[in-house]
Amino acid sequence: MFKTFRPGGIHPSENKLTAGSKIRGLPIPGQVSIPMNQHIGASPKILVEKGDMVKVGQLIAQEEGFISANIHSSVSGKVLKVDAVVDMSGYKRKAITIKVEGDEWLEEIDTSTELVKEISLERHEIVRKINESGIVGMGGATFPSHVKLMLPRGKKAEYLIVNGAECEPYITCDHRLMLEDPESIIEGIKVVMKALGVKKTIIGIEDNKPDAIKILKKLLSKQKKISVGTLKSKYPQGAEKQLIYALTSRVVPSGGLPMDIGVVVLNVGTISSIANIFKTGLPVTERIVTVTGNGVNNPNNLLVRLGTSFEDCVNACDGLKDNVEKIISGGPMMGVAQSNLQATINEGTTAILVLDKKEAKVVHPENCIRCGSCIYACPIGLMPLSIAATADKGDFDLAEKLGAKDCIECGICTYICPSRRSLVQSIRLAKSILNKRRI
Q1: Rounded Cα gap, residues 328 and 353, in angstroms
Q2: pTM greater than the 0.90 cutoff
Q3: How far is CA 29 from CA 182, 284, 327, 349, 425, in A?
Q4: How many CA atoms lie within 13 A of 77 on its CB side?
Q5: What count of other Cβ atoms lies within 10 Å of the Cβ of residue 117?
Q6: Are residues 372 and 381 in contact, defined by beta-carbon separation less than 8 angstroms?
Q7: What is residue 113's predicted lDDT score, i.e. its pLDDT?
Q8: Which residues pair with 329 in a beta bridge?
Q9: Which one of 69, 88, 262, 427 has the largest count of C-beta atoms within 10 Å of its C-beta?
Q10: Does residue 259 form part of some domain?
């Protein structure tokens, strides 16, 4: 019996077009624009200015505040400008633009290929090194990883859950990582287990990735503390609360955090990047990005330097077809539509999805028929139709009472609605306004 969550959930068409495409390194572009908002929390303090020369791995922006993250240069070259540019959100935000000159790395970075088997650092030293390296959640959430590893007083972690579900349609970057570099995931797990002091780790993988399950189970056959949990292919199986329930039967309380029930969750990409810190000393300067959809000529999984433009990534996949209708950063359920290809890759960019006219068929909303489909499918057990209706009327206090803040914005309600109403967009607006009130 495969593990899963309740209530709700759906199984949309998977469209994993690039599941069999090996990760291909993208040549270093001529220019990068490294965004300063590639993590949740406070923007970092910029340490460079126009005309400065930087190297790969150099700290160019320093965290400010508890929830913030350091940012490092992904290339070597000259800083062309420090200015606001349009990012994948559609807003102008600060970025550091660098003209690439060679590929010179900081001297302290070790380029050897030997994985570190034993970590001699103490728990607090491990967390500090992860903090200094600026790692954030690479599954898309971009929450600073070191914060998750700093256990509040009186809290104890019992489980480390490693998220390899990758339930969003089209995206395959985590799948390919598990197939091509599973050792880094295991070594990263050992590092994090020591930092947290946990005795049990479960890697959650959906059953539509039998090859990844087989490889990791084989590598972990002699491990008693690390296991693979096979999950039913179901969206949003990779959402934090749903993943925790599926693998441990524990329930994160409304308004609570996984740590409240003794659990820490990290994505496989994040875990692999943590291993790389202790292997080479190199902070995150690149990530795997799935470039996919029927609107791109040669869908592929690319290893890309941070700050590389979407356009460079798409061109590396032989460009766009003539029938492109929509471009999305991320997956079709939770991704953000793009007006062009000028946005750049950050730590949380999992995919560039190019949809053709058939895939992105425009539909017009009709009146709600109160069928309840969104209620039955909601993985949180909310009433999306009621929350959206109150939000549309501007009654955000009532929207909050109905549980708007608990919405994980998975998009199921909009996907399942026979009237094609944009329910999640209305709920997202309510959450945004409620969060601004709190500030």
Answers
A1: 5
A2: yes
A3: 28, 17, 21, 17, 35
A4: 21
A5: 7
A6: no
A7: 54
A8: 336, 352
A9: 69
A10: yes
